């Protein structure tokens, strides 16, 4: 088979050679038929070497037979400096076990300012600066949470949970799903320790996103749906609770879509829309950026995940995302670019990716969805790819 053939086509070729249906291959991999179909059509990228290895084993072919020209792009040794710094912070247990008296505590306003700055950097996708701030913030907040003064300890718990959520959000964007899950779990535990159920639920939002990114769809659906129901049972109709309920329903809707459970996805999207209507405005409680605009953006994402590029582009044209964070706007633009890519509108896809890159260069250049999309555009375009596409491919490391 031609070495330049797209990965999805190569998987379909070897699946048919083995006499396997999409349903049968999906069963061997423990995934849905929809997932196989989207991989083979190039709608969903295969962006992790571990998953690629699973597919190769199921098809009884060497990995290089599936990805002869792109295998180097799955280099797991290539680690962003921010990942290394936060990995060390998450696995340094001294601050978690020490008492407050073991280290000088920062002033509470400065601690809270650091947490706010961390989220500002997350939303701007400025990961290198986060590598400097987060380790110190996590250690300071953990120590503060162990203060003998109950008021100080309560602030420390809230800031520590918030900082772990920021770490989880950054790690998830950089493809470190397991560590993102760990950071989210730490946030949940801190919220529970302070008997703040809403704060604990905010940590579950990070876990749900990590599960989605890791394609653990049943887990994402379970934790999102259960936690949304739990927050609703608390009976509080505060903006914070509504934002979390809505954000959790959006996670469940994405998971349902990827599982090809379209009716259930629509139900969760409708529940999120209901929460957004009750909220009445775009907010950023617990850094979810939840509100009517985010629900509309997720409807675009769901259409893209379903492979309905036309519906995605129609919905996207009606959305004004200018008031959202640069990071959220860039992720929306990546979905729009994916829709253009599905329609083989290369110039529109590249233009949209360049717009996203202007907003958050680090996010775009480290995003595996973007990298695989650009590879696919290079393979499926004209014999001589457009100059702007080649330049983008070089900037994100797809070609030398």
């Amino acid at each position: 088979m031609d070495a330049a053939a797209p990965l999805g086509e190569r998987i379909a070729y070897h699946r048919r050679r083995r006499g396997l249906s999409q349903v049968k291959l999906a069963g061997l991999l423990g995934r849905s038929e929809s997932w196989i179909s989207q991989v083979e059509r190039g709608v969903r990228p295969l962006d992790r070497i571990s998953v690629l290895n699973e597919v190769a084993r199921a098809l009884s072919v060497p990995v290089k037979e599936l990805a002869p020209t792109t295998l180097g792009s799955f280099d797991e040794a290539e680690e962003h400096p921010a990942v290394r710094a936060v990995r060390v912070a998450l696995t340094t247990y001294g601050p978690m076990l020490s008492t407050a008296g073991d280290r000088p505590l920062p002033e509470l306003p400065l601690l809270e300012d650091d947490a706010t700055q961390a989220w500002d950097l997350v939303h701007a996708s400025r990961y290198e600066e986060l590598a400097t701030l987060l380790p110190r913030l996590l250690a300071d907040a953990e120590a503060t949470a162990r203060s003998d003064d109950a008021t100080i300890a309560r602030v420390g718990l809230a800031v520590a949970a918030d900082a772990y959520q920021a770490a989880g959000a950054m790690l998830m964007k950089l493809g470190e799903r397991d560590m993102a899950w760990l950071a989210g779990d730490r946030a949940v535990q801190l919220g529970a320790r302070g008997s703040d159920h809403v704060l604990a639920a905010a940590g579950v939002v990070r876990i749900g996103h990590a599960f989605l990114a890791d394609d653990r769809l049943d887990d994402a659906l379970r934790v999102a749906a259960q936690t949304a129901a739990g927050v609703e049972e608390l009976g509080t109709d505060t903006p914070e609770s509504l934002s979390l309920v809505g954000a959790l329903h959006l996670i469940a809707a994405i998971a349902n879509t990827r599982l090809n459970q379209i009716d259930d996805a629509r139900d969760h999207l409708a529940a999120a829309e209901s929460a957004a209507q009750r909220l009445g405005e775009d907010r950023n409680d617990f850094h979810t950026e939840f509100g009517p605009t985010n629900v509309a953006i997720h409807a675009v994402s769901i259409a893209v995940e379903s492979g309905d590029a036309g519906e995605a582009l129609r919905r996207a044209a009606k959305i004004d995302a200018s008031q959202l964070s640069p990071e959220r706007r860039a992720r929306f633009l990546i979905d729009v670019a994916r829709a253009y890519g599905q329609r083989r509108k290369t110039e529109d896809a590249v233009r949209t990716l360049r717009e996203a890159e202007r907003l958050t260069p680090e996010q775009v250049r480290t995003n595996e969805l973007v990298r695989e999309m650009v590879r696919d555009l290079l393979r499926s375009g004209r014999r001589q790819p457009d100059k702007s596409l080649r330049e983008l491919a070089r900037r994100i490391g797809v070609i030398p």
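The longest helix spans residues 150-173. The chain has a mean pLDDT of 87.
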